[in-house]
């Protein structure tokens, strides 16, 4: 099988909308899909769209408490806040048909997982997904239902024995970690800004898993200001060795692009070019360690025009096996759409003009460098659990 791709998509996925003042604006998904279409990402014969259906209550109960699901339904009908479930907060305002919108995103991620597990395609993507903060019994961090965890839980229900989850969002993937913290069938790896400076305040190196799964929760907590070379150094020092040892049957990845220097809610300083390099690395690791079975989800990202559409269009093209030349100009029709939908000026090119190079961690540990200290803390905490020497 080649680099076949199924795109789980329905225009209604943009109905997950907390309102005009909320940073998680669905226009970012709309502009991503429009840019990808204009650049021909979906035109390859190996790419197909798959329809999606809302996740049923039975499906949602794989990861969410029944009482919470009912509370989401009530809130989306009454539009009344429910503090006991963190519904109606500034992060998670209630909105009409909230359950239906969130269940559709969850259903799309399960559809992507199904396409990969059943062998319909090598890769599958839900670019509207990646709502990784939602907890079993409450909303959290712009996330109502945890579609990433649900896709993983569905794979386990089908008989998967090893699923790896790699989260490159700037925020810790706390909800997914929580749901599989004591399950050695699931390896969760999150690279994120340090909890000392960013929501949700978790994701330290010593959060390594429960008593039956020690070493299966992996956290790389990076200092504010981490740039492309240092982020990539951390990624390559931690992720490939663990995936090669774990040998997942399916790789699930979350691609929040709020690691970018322009993102208004966080403090890392990556470029679109550095993010594109991470996508390439994960694609190669999916081929090398998971027989190509790769489920790809969106995530955070709050610079709605300059960053998200370009980053995720690069992601979609990489997953499709037809990576775009970063030197490409953005299409004039897309720039006009950006102006019409947001009033902003669109970026002119698909690159930030950076060369995402890095020095491998194996070339030498610098104890005075805070990124190197974060890398070493993670390797020391989890590598021995997998029989890997943290000092090599």
From TrEMBL:
Region forming the signal peptide: none
Region Disordered, annotated ranges: 348-369
Known pathway: Ketone degradation; acetoin degradation
Coiled-coil positions: none
UniProt keyword Transferase present: no
GO biological process: acetoin catabolic process; epigenetic regulation of gene expression
InterPro entries reported in the protein's UniProt record: AcuC, HDACs, His_deacetylse_dom, His_deacetylse_dom_sf, Ureohydrolase_dom_sf
Record-level Gene Ontology MF annotations: histone deacetylase activity
Residue ranges of every copy of the Histone deacetylase domain listed in the record: 22-317
Entry keyword set: Acetoin catabolism
Protein family (similarity comment): Belongs to the histone deacetylase family.
Full protein name: Acetoin utilization protein AcuC
Phylogenetic lineage: Bacteria, Bacillati, Actinomycetota, Actinomycetes, Streptosporangiales
């Amino acid at each position: 099988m080649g680099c076949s791709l199924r795109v789980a998509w329905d225009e209604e996925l943009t109905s997950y909308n907390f309102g005009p003042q909320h940073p998680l604006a669905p226009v970012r998904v709309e502009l991503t899909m429009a840019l990808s279409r204009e650049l021909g990402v979906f035109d390859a014969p190996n790419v197909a769209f798959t329809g999606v259906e809302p996740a049923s209550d039975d499906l949602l109960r794989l990861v969410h408490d029944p009482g919470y699901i009912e509370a989401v339904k009530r809130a989306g009908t009454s539009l009344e806040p429910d503090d006991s479930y963190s519904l109606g907060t500034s992060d998670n305002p209630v909105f009409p048909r909230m359950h239906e919108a969130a269940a559709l995103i969850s259903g799309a991620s399960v559809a992507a997982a199904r396409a990969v597990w059943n062998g319909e395609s090598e890769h599958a993507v839900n670019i509207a997904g990646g709502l990784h903060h939602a907890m079993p019994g409450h909303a959290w961090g712009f996330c109502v239902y945890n579609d990433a965890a649900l896709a993983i839980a569905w794979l386990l229900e089908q008989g998967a024995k090893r699923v790896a989850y790699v989260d490159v969002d700037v925020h810790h993937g706390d909800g997914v970690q929580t749901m599989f913290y004591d399950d050695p069938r699931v390896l969760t790896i999150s690279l994120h800004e340090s909890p000392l400076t960013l929501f949700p305040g978790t994701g330290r190196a010593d959060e390594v898993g429960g008593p039956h799964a020690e070493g299966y929760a992996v956290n790389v907590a990076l200092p504010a200001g981490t740039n492309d070379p240092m982020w990539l150094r951390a990624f390559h020092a931690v992720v490939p060795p663990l995936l090669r040892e774990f040998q997942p049957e399916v790789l699930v990845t979350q691609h929040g692009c709020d690691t970018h220097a322009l993102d208004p809610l966080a403090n890392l300083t990556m470029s679109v070019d550095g993010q594109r390099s991470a996508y390439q690395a994960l694609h190669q690791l999916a081929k090398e360690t998971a027989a190509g079975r790769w489920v790809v989800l969106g995530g955070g990202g709050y610079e709605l025009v300059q960053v998200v559409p370009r980053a995720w269009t690069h992601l979609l093209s990489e997953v499709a096996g037809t990576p775009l030349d970063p030197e490409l100009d953005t299409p004039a029709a897309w720039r006009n759409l950006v102006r019409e939908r947001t009033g902003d000026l669109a970026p002119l090119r698909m690159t930030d003009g950076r060369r995402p190079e890095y020095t491998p961690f194996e070339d030498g540990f610098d104890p005075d460098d805070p990124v190197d200290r974060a890398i070493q803390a993670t390797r020391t905490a989890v590598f021995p659990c997998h029989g890997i020497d943290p000092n090599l």
